[in-house]
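The record is kept unedited without comment:

——
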Amino acid sequence: MAPYVGYLAAFLGTICWIPQAVKAWATRDTSGLSLPSNLLFLTTVSLWLVYGMMIGDWPLILANICAVVAMLSIVAAKLRFK
């Protein structure tokens, strides 16, 4: 049962960033986004990804791959549409 809880948490925790990434690219408006905050979160999810890979925890790995991609998209939009 625990792996299913982990996968559900991973899914819900990462899809929450997708609408923000889509909105940033669709509107080209990133004025409400904090670059330092998003860079810090990108660092955090990157470290969680590395940790998940080190211990072989697939919910952590999958969740943080998705989170890294979403956060890279948000940071790229913030840098491009200043």
The mean pLDDT is 92. Helices lie at 2-15, 18-27, 35-55, 58-80.
